[in-house]
């Protein structure tokens, strides 16, 4: 009788565990738009597809990294721009406190000097810096008709240093360009949007993924130099570097970070987090939709899950994907 009772208790225990799915899991909801979208996507998929009891916790790059390493929470940081905390994170991997999951943004975070795609369609050589310089007269300066315009970063932004050094390295002043401080993020995006709406020439700094790149197609200008990491780190990004050389911007690695405890406990979810990835174009389109519809991360998640099954189904087994779809 005791043996039978013990067997029944074991069966009941396994049933409760099965119903509980993966148990409790915490996900960092970072304070920028793409990361909040990603966090809400993970929340929905983990709850509906894997049966987790998931919750979002506020996050930001440095405090979330530190908390995962020191306290083992949150369990998942869906979109971590790793350049700022790379040494810390790498040591955490060595110490078996965290793991790198897949690339949140498969293209990495992109920076560069850009021109509108319709310009490259008309003048294919404009995909290169030589082509831009050749057609310098098309890039009208808003205040001085005697020079051409390149839009840089607002004062105080780190990218102002790199753009200024590249302006010197590419000898753009000698080519007739003036480097414009747009004054603010709104000033920079406003100038880019205005040019696209009017189908005018525009040349300047921007980054991806962003909502504005979801609305307007832009082409990153090729300097013909490739990426020189050492030059970028020791000169391009250093204020008043004496002799800057030409280099393309290296992509910023953007990855999912998972605590080792959770990754070891939940290999199926870890497999999902290794596969869950957006291209910059996909994310830019979603960010544009969020901006146009004034949607938060949860609203954007619902739109993404309902409208883009061809993207997220690739991250999941058919069984789990069907559970997610039916939950809508």
From TrEMBL:
The keyword Signal applies. Residues 24-306 form the ABC-type glycine betaine transport system substrate-binding domain. Residues 1-18 form the signal peptide. Keywords: Signal. The keyword Signal applies. This is ABC transporter substrate-binding protein.
